[in-house]
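Structure in, sequence out. Go:
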């Protein structure tokens, strides 16, 4: 209150500092009036100290600035009056809709585009927002005069005249088609991932029930014949699981560019025959009639990775068997197609492929009908692998079908190499149908911390005529190896006490026997860098678990005396 008291006292004192204060207050009030008049555009010139100052048109300066900014914006800006006629458009708008300003000004908005709402209710929501808040922001579709439709994001504001009445609207419009496309691609990938995970879970679970049943059967019924049946079930289901996991690993490695081809001269006849070995059980299950047309050996020689080539052909034959109802026909052929090119075809009389799916069956995770209840499932990976592997071989693959239930034909074309005197590399056929054998004089140490794994492998080798020992950690492995000096050591990498890699290094460090012993790594990992690690530790071979016993026997077979 003290200040107020002092002020009121000053007000009634007309001389001295009080009078001075009052004059100042009056001058300030006058200055304020002058400023107000200038702002209101009522003053065109001012005289100060006998000099004339002509005032700039402040409003027109500001509006010129606004116009420049709007004209240079990347977003389209369009103003329309209450009759929907275009009263203004910037150059971005003319560019975006491909209509010169002179063709649009004064004409209905439709001279620029037709617009469509994206969802029912959008139109009502927009007019509600405009009438209550005076603005609306949202997405819709603009169809240009050329017919092209673009997705746009618009901010629309009601313009008012001097009396506050609506005089039209001003829209700032951004073309977001690219963003919408990217969002759709992400949503699509997300949907496909979800579908894939559901399929994966289903396909991985499928073999488990029969395996569990078979084990139960073996537990309760000691009848040897039943045991053999049960074992058969487990083997087949396990093979299916291994196949799925292999495909998954393969597709991961291929998409990361980590698969290298081990190319050599390969006779296509050998590749087709090897693939037949793989696919025959599935073809037999479907009771299909199989016809194979092959040229004489040596006629179609390609530079290829035999394992991968076999995988390509087997995949196509498996699909032919899978997607053909029982007792269908499957024809496999290999021939020369034009100069320097081999053509491998797998034809079936099965369910066929709708024409719109033909170009897409090679896409990762693409499946024509997921709901189809098939005897042998899959993940939609096989054909993606086929295409990738064929391309890595410098070839191409194509699918053809006359439609539903009219069968399918898959054609693989590969470049031939010029014939030379050299005979194609020899490939020992898989040592399937293992038979019990006599003592072959070859000693093998099997090292695995999973006692079941080590013992079952050792037993299997013993039946085949090998002398075997087992160890379950790294130190024990060194001990047993030192005592018995086996010809080969099959060594799991993840061992307690001393890792498989360390065991290998220490074995190799022993002169004589240690340098000669065949070292085989068993690993859960099969990437190139994993293989490189085992090679550097001194291993001769690298097997990915679960081990293909036929292949292992093939490798050990070279030690036979
Ligand atoms: P998967 O067999 O695991 O589903 P693929 O990549 O091998 O995956 O095949 C992709 C899809 O192509 C299959 O789901 C199937 O719909 C279709 N397809 C493949 N081969 C044939 C064929 N021979 N006949 C009919 N459809 C096929």
């Amino acid at each position: 209150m003290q200040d107020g008291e002092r002020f009121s006292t000053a007000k009634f004192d007309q001389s001295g500092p009080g009078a001075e204060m009052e004059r100042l207050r009056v001058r300030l009030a006058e200055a304020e009036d002058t400023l107000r008049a200038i702002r209101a555009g009522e003053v065109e010139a001012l005289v100060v100290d006998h000099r004339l100052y002509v005032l700039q048109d402040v409003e027109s300066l500001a509006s010129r600035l606004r116009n420049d900014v709007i004209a240079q914006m990347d977003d389209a800006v369009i103003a329309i009056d209450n009759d929907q006629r275009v009263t203004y458009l910037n150059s971005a708008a003319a560019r975006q809709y491909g209509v010169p300003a002179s063709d649009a000004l004064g004409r209905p908005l439709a001279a620029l585009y037709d617009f469509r709402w994206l969802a029912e209710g959008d139109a009502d929501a927009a007019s509600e927002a405009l009438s209550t808040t005076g603005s609306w922001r949202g997405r819709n579709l603009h169809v240009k005069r050329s017919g092209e439709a673009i997705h746009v994001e618009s901010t629309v504001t009601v313009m008012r005249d001097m009396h506050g009445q609506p005089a039209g609207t001003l829209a700032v419009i951004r073309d977001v088609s690219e963003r919408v496309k990217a969002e759709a691609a992400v949503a699509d990938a997300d949907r496909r991932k979800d579908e894939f995970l559901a399929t994966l879970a289903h396909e991985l679970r499928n073999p488990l029930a029969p395996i569990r049943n078979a084990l139960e059967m073996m537990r309760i019924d000691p009848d040897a014949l039943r045991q053999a049946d049960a074992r058969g079930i487990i083997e087949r289901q396990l093979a299916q699981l291994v196949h799925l996991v292999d495909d998954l690993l393969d597709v991961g490695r291929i998409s990361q560019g980590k698969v290298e081809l081990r190319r050599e001269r390969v006779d296509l006849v050998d590749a087709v025959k090897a693939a037949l070995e793989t696919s025959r059980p599935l073809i037999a299950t479907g009771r299909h009639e199989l016809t194979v047309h092959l040229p004489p050996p040596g006629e179609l020689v390609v530079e290829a990775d035999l394992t991968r080539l076999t995988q390509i052909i087997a995949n196509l034959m498996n699909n032919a068997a899978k997607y053909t109802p029982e007792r269908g026909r499957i024809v496999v052929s290999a021939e020369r197609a034009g100069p320097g090119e081999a053509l491998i075809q797998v034809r079936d009389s099965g369910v066929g492929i709708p024409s719109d799916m033909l170009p897409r069956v090679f896409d990762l995770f693409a499946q024509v009908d997921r709901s189809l209840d098939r005897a042998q499932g899959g993940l939609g990976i096989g054909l993606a692998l086929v295409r990738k592997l064929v391309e890595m071989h410098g070839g191409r693959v194509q699918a053809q079908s006359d439609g539903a239930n009219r069968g399918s034909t898959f054609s693989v074309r590969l470049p031939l190499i010029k014939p030379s005197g050299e005979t194609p590399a020899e490939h020992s056929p898989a040592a399937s149908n293992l038979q019990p054998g006599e003592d072959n004089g070859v000693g093998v140490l099997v090292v695995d911390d999973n006692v079941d794994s080590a013992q079952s492998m050792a037993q299997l080798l013993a039946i085949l005529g090998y002398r075997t020992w087992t160890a379950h950690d790294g130190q024990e492995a060194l001990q047993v190896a030192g005592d018995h000096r086996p010809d080969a050591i099959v060594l799991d990498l993840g061992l307690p006490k001393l890792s498989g890699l360390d065991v290998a290094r220490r074995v190799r460090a022993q002169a004589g026997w240690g340098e000669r012993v065949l070292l085989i790594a068993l690993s859960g990992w099969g990437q190139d860098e994993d293989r490189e690690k085992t090679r550097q530790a001194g291993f001769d071979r690298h097997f990915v678990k679960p081990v293909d016993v036929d292949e292992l026997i093939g490798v050990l077979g070279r030690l036979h005396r």
